[in-house]
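Our collaborator T.R. sent over the components below with a one-line note: 'Predict the complex.' Nothing else. No constraints on interfaces, no templates requested, no preferences about which chain binds where. So this is a plain run: every listed entity goes in together, and whatever single assembly comes back becomes the starting point for the next discussion.
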Amino acid sequence: MEVIVASAVGVLTSGGVYLMLRLRTFPVILGLTLLSYAVNVFLFSSGRFAIDQSPILSPYGEASYTDPLPQALVLTAIVISFGMTAVLVMVGLGAYLEADDDRIDLDRPGADAPGKDTAQ
Amino acid sequence: MNHWIIAPVVLPALLAPLIAFVMRHDISLARAASVAGSLALAAIAVGLTILAAGGETHLYRLGDWPAPFGIVLVLDRLSALMVLLTAILALIVVTHAIATGWDARGRHFHALFQFQLMGICGAFLTGDIFNLFVFFEILLIASYGLMIHSGGRERMRAGLQYVVINLAGSTLFLFALGTLYASTGTLNIADLAVRVAQIPAEEAALVRVAAILLMIVFAVKAALFPVQFWLPATYSNAPAPVAALFAIMTKVGAYAILRIHTVAFGPGVAGTEGLPGTWLFPAALVTIAVGAFGVLGARRLMPLIAFSAVGSMGTLLVAVAAFSPEATAAALYYIVHSTFAAAALFLVADLVLTRRGGDALVSVPATVQNGLFAALFFAAAIAMAGMPPLSGFLGKLLILDALRDPGEMAWAWSVILIGSLLTIVGFARAGSTLFWKSTAAGVPASSEKADVAPAGPAEIAPVMATVAVLAALAVFAGPVSLYLEGTTTQLFDRAGYISSVLGPDAEG
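Returned assembly:
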C-alpha cells in the first residue's frame, strides 16, 4: 500500500512539474491539475494508513480508527483547487482571446507589442 | 471572548456578496458601500489595536471549540497592527480608485476589493496554519480578479502568469502542511510550537523539510529571491490602485514568516534551530540586489516602482532573517513604512501616467500640474529609497543598527547601503526624465493640451494622505518604535502565546 501511494504521488508530481514547465497554457493547466491530484493523495497519506477503518472513534471497545482530519483537509483542498483551476481556465481563455496566442511567457521588455495599453 | 476579533473577516465577507449581487448595476451605490465598509473596517481595526495594546493575547474560538481541536483566531499586538495597516491602506486605495474612475473600467471592482480585504485580515488574525492556507486562497482568488480588472492584452497575459505561479505556490503549501501534519499531528500554530519543541534534533528531518517548504511558499508571496520573478510583471501590468493594494500582499508573506518561523520553528527549538535564518539571510541580500539593479535598468516607470518594491522586501527580510527581537522591531517599522511608500509611488505614478502617452521613461512635453506631480513623486521616491526626512531613512537606520552581529554586519550593511544608493540613482534618473527634461522639451501646442484634465482635490488627496502617513511615521518614530518593541516582545514570548491559546496547563 505504501509503495503504491508513494509511487502514485511521485509519478503525478513529476508529470505535473514536467507539464508545468511547458510554454503553452493548456499543458500548464493540466500540469497544475496533476500536481493538485498528487497533493490530495499526499494529504491522505499524512494521517497514516489504516485500511478498512472508519474515521470515527468507537465508544464500544477497542476498535481502531483512521484519522479523520486529513480527509477534511483533502476535501477543502479539492474544493479550492477545483475553483482555482476554473479561474485559471477562464483567465487563460481570456489571455488567449486577447493575444491570439497561448504562449505563457510575456513579450520581451522593449519589444513593443501591438495593442499595448500599459498607459491606462 | 470578544466577538469584535472576527469582525474584520465577517464584515467584508458579508459586504462583498451584497455589492456583487445587489449593487452590481449601480456603481455609485457600490462605491458608497465599499467606502463605508472600508471606514468601518478602519474603525474596527483601531478598536482592536486599542484592545491589543494592553499586551494581552486575545483568543477567539470559532464555535467555542477548545484550541487544538477547533479553529482559533488570535489577536495580539502584531496581528492588530497588520489589520490596522491593511484598513488604512484600503481606505486610501478605494478613495483613489473611485476618484480616478478606475473602479468603473471593469466589473465587480468593489466586491473583489472587499473579498481581498477579508482574505488579508483573516490571514493576519488566524491561529491555525491550515486556516492560513484557506485565507491565502481567498486573498489570492480576489487578487486574480483585481489583477486583470479592465483587461487588455498585456494585463491578461501577466495575470495568467500570476495565477499559475500562485497555484504552484498553493500546491507547495499543501505539501508542506501534509508533511507537517504527518510529523507533528497538529496544525494549530501554538500546538505546533509545543510539539515541534518536543522533537529531538536527530529526528526532526521531516519537520525541517516542512519548515523550509513553508518558507518557500511564504517567500513566493513575499517576492524573495529566487521566487521574486512574478512580482515586476504583475505589479507593472496591474491597474495602479490594485498594485498599491498589492503592497500589503507581499507583507502577508513577511508576516507569515515572522509568525510561523518565530513561534513554531524559531529560536530555542532544537529541531530547527537557526535553520530559517541561514537560508533567509542570503536570499534576502540577493533580493535587495535584484531590486536595485531592476530600478537602475528599468525603462518604464511601473516596472521601476515594482523593482523598488522587490528591493524593499529584501531589506525587510534581511531584518526578519536575524530572528532577534531588536531586528524584528526594526522590521516591523519597515513593514509599515514600505507598505505606504510603495502605495504612494504607485498612486502618484497612476496620476502622472494617465496624463502621459505611456509609461516609458522618455521625456515628452509636460502636461498639467508638472510641479505638483514632481513634488509628490520626489517625496514618495525619497521615502522608498531611504533618504531623510521621511520614514524610509529611519526604517533603514533601525535595521542597520539592529544588524550588528559580526558575521552578518559586513554583508548586510554593504548590500543595504549600496542597494539604497542604486535605488536613489534609479529614481533620480526616472524623476529627472519624467519631470525636468519634459519641461525642457518645450511647451506643447495648446490643442494637444486641451484633452488632459488636471487632477482634482479628490485625486490628489489619497497620495497626499499616504505621504502624510510617511511623514507622521517619521515624526512619531519614537512612540511608534516603542510600541513595536512591545509587539516584538510579545511575538518572541512563545510560552505566553502557547498558554493563552492552549490554556495555562500546556507546557511550552
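Summary for T.R.: DSSP finds 20 helices and two strands in chain B.
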